[in-house]
């Protein structure tokens, strides 16, 4: 706690509160003292004016009457003649004309008191002096100092306590994130950062980290799956190639037979190379290396060009091709990858539907994007297998007899993920329905 950044922040906050309290004290103290001194000066000046208005021959008596009213009368008075001698009053020393502060011993106690006085020269050459003890002002000064000292100390303590509580909360959240990271480093890829539901900066960080961790887990599991699938699926063509080469070495008796064996081996090598090329394409797409080349793509024209290419193929094999393409639909993406994605889906419909089946390609504009649907009346994909067929090298039993690597739908899923397209495999009743929702607002 003491070495944490949160604690240092709490200390800085406490220091800031202390400085604010000090500034408030200085401002309040100066304002209060200035106000009280002004009131005191005004009262003294008014009293001095009243005394100066008393006729000279009655002035001494007026001063005596005022002094006899103590303690109800809080003022001090003195009248000095033109030579500075005290004529009457309790202020023993003649001050200079105007405002000043004098000190003298308080009668009966011996304590020194400070008195604010106003000396006014009169017409007859004498000087009238009226003053008032500053004890009330000094008592207020002392009270303000005590109040603001305790208030400042309380503010600092509360700020420090609040900072400690805040620092403890921050440390607990940081430790939770650090603990999740430690579990992931130890190999627990299922670990996630807890979300409190407050939607604060830590929750937003947790959402971002959890999204990153899910992506990492998916990539690691994909890598593990690819490693296993490569070892499993490439064993067959490599084994066939070895057997054919061994058979050629043992049985071939002419150049022609050797040539045929080499052709079959080259076909197996091409199949392996085609598989690796497809894997590399998927890897590049999943690494999001193609996003920098995104631009506006005229999706309607792209699909119309694919219709021109595949309609003769589908109808030539006895299939009905239904096309509904909205005009003027544009999306943001990579035209080559989108073309490859739709071509893979049409290839699947071509290879996995019987003659006489129907294949439909539909593009609809939506208020917040657009939707592409490719469906057929073929055998379809069972609901339990629809998530699995989007992975690499997955081929259903019904498709084992057709050529392929099991990477077509995996590439479709990778391109859809790169473009933030929501990919859904459903039931066309009968057949397969592939729905692609572009969530971006299309440029119509």
UniProtKB/TrEMBL annotation:
<dbReference type="InterPro" id="IPR036097">
    <property type="entry name" value="HisK_dim/P_sf"/>
</dbReference>
<feature type="domain" description="HAMP">
    <location>
        <begin position="168"/>
        <end position="221"/>
    </location>
</feature>
<keyword id="KW-0418">Kinase</keyword>
<protein>
    <recommendedName>
        <fullName>histidine kinase</fullName>
        <ecNumber>2.7.13.3</ecNumber>
    </recommendedName>
</protein>
<keyword id="KW-0597">Phosphoprotein</keyword>
<dbReference type="InterPro" id="IPR050428">
    <property type="entry name" value="TCS_sensor_his_kinase"/>
</dbReference>
<dbReference type="Pfam" id="PF02518">
    <property type="entry name" value="HATPase_c"/>
</dbReference>
<feature type="transmembrane region" description="Helical">
    <location>
        <begin position="147"/>
        <end position="171"/>
    </location>
</feature>
<dbReference type="Pfam" id="PF00672">
    <property type="entry name" value="HAMP"/>
</dbReference>
<dbReference type="GO" id="GO:0016301">
    <property type="term" value="F:kinase activity"/>
</dbReference>
<keyword id="KW-0808">Transferase</keyword>
<dbReference type="Pfam" id="PF00512">
    <property type="entry name" value="HisKA"/>
</dbReference>
<dbReference type="InterPro" id="IPR005467">
    <property type="entry name" value="His_kinase_dom"/>
</dbReference>
<dbReference type="InterPro" id="IPR008358">
    <property type="entry name" value="Sig_transdc_His_kin/Pase_MprB"/>
</dbReference>
<dbReference type="InterPro" id="IPR036890">
    <property type="entry name" value="HATPase_C_sf"/>
</dbReference>
<dbReference type="InterPro" id="IPR003594">
    <property type="entry name" value="HATPase_dom"/>
</dbReference>
<feature type="domain" description="Histidine kinase">
    <location>
        <begin position="229"/>
        <end position="427"/>
    </location>
</feature>
<dbReference type="InterPro" id="IPR003661">
    <property type="entry name" value="HisK_dim/P_dom"/>
</dbReference>
<keyword id="KW-0812">Transmembrane</keyword>
<dbReference type="InterPro" id="IPR003660">
    <property type="entry name" value="HAMP_dom"/>
</dbReference>
<keyword id="KW-0472">Membrane</keyword>
<feature type="transmembrane region" description="Helical">
    <location>
        <begin position="12"/>
        <end position="32"/>
    </location>
</feature>
<keyword id="KW-1133">Transmembrane helix</keyword>
<keyword id="KW-0902">Two-component regulatory system</keyword>
């Amino acid at each position: 706690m003491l070495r944490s950044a949160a604690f240092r922040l709490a200390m800085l906050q406490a220091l800031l509160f202390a400085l604010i309290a000090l500034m408030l004290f200085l401002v309040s103290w100066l304002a209060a003292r200035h106000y009280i001194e002004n009131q005191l000066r005004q009262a003294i000046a008014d009293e001095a004016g009243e005394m100066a208005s008393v006729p000279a021959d009655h002035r001494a008596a007026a001063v005596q009457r005022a002094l006899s009213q103590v303690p109800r009368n809080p003022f001090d008075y003195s009248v000095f003649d033109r030579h500075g001698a005290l004529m009457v009053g309790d202020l023993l020393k003649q001050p200079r004309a105007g405002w000043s502060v004098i000190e003298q011993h308080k009668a009966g106690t011996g304590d020194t008191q400070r008195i604010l006085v106003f000396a006014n020269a009169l017409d007859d050459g004498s000087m009238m002096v009226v003053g008032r003890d500053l004890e009330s002002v000094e008592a207020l000064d002392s009270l303000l100092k005590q109040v603001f000292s305790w208030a400042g100390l309380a503010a600092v303590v509360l700020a420090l306590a609040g900072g400690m509580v805040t620092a403890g909360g921050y440390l607990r959240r940081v430790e939770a994130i650090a603990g999740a990271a430690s579990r992931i480093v130890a190999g627990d890829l299922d670990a996630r950062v807890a979300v409190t539901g407050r939607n604060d900066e830590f929750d937003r960080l947790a959402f971002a980290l959890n999204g990153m961790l899910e992506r990492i887990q998916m990539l690691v599991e994909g890598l593990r799956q690819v490693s296993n699938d490569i070892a499993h699926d490439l064993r067959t063509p490599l084994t066939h190639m070895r057997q054919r080469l061994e058979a050629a070495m043992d049985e071939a008796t002419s150049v022609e037979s050797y040539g045929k064996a080499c052709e079959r081996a080259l076909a197996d090598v091409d199949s392996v190379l085609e598989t690796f090329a497809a894997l590399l394409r998927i890897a590049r797409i999943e690494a999001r290396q193609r996003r920098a080349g995104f631009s506006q793509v005229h999706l309607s024209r792209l699909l119309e060009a694919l219709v021109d290419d595949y309609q003769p193929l589908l109808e030539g094999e006895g299939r009905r091709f239904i096309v509904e393409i909205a005009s003027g639909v544009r999306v943001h993406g990579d035209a080559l990858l989108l073309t490859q994605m739709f071509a893979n889906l049409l290839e699947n419909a071509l290879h996995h539907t019987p003659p006489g089946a129907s294949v439909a390609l539909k593009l609809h504009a939506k208020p917040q994007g657009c939707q592409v649907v490719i469906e057929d009346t073929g055998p379809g994909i069972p609901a339990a297998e629809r998530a699995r067929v989007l992975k690499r090298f997955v081929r259903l039993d019904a498709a084992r007899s057709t050529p392929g690597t099991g990477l077509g739908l995996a590439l479709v899923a990778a391109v859809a993920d790169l473009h933030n397209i929501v990919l859904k495999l459903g039931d066309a009743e009968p057949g397969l329905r592939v729905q692609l929702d572009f969530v971006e607002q299309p440029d119509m």
